[in-house]
Amino acid sequence: MCRSIKTLRDYENPPADEDVEAAALQFVRKISGFRKPSRTNEEVFDRAVAEITEASRSLLDSLSPTRSLAG
Cβ neighbours of residue 56 under 8 Å, at least 6 residues apart? Predict the structure, then answer.
């Protein structure tokens, strides 16, 4: 699933907000089945992208480096 979403965890070069949002958009497209939602579904689609973006950014900001990267 979502093979085109790249790994964003990189402790030396944290991902840009645009990259996190693009990954969230790809995820919502995949699970909803919509590339572009109808006007009826646009608000919930956009809200899902925003919520997943926020959760993803929080996750990335909170992860600790693995032992091999910690030194």
Answer: 8, 20, 23, 24
Q: pTM of the full predicted structure?
A: 0.82
Tokens representing 61 are 């900001």
Q: How far apart, in Å, are the Cα atoms of 41 and each of 32, 36, 38, 44? A: 10, 9, 5, 6
Place of tokens 């990335």: 60
Mean pLDDT (whole number) for 1-25? 83
User: Which residue reads 């070069």 in tokens?
Assistant: 13
- Write out the two tokens for 2: 């979502």
Residues 65 and 11: beta-carbon distance below 8 Å = yes
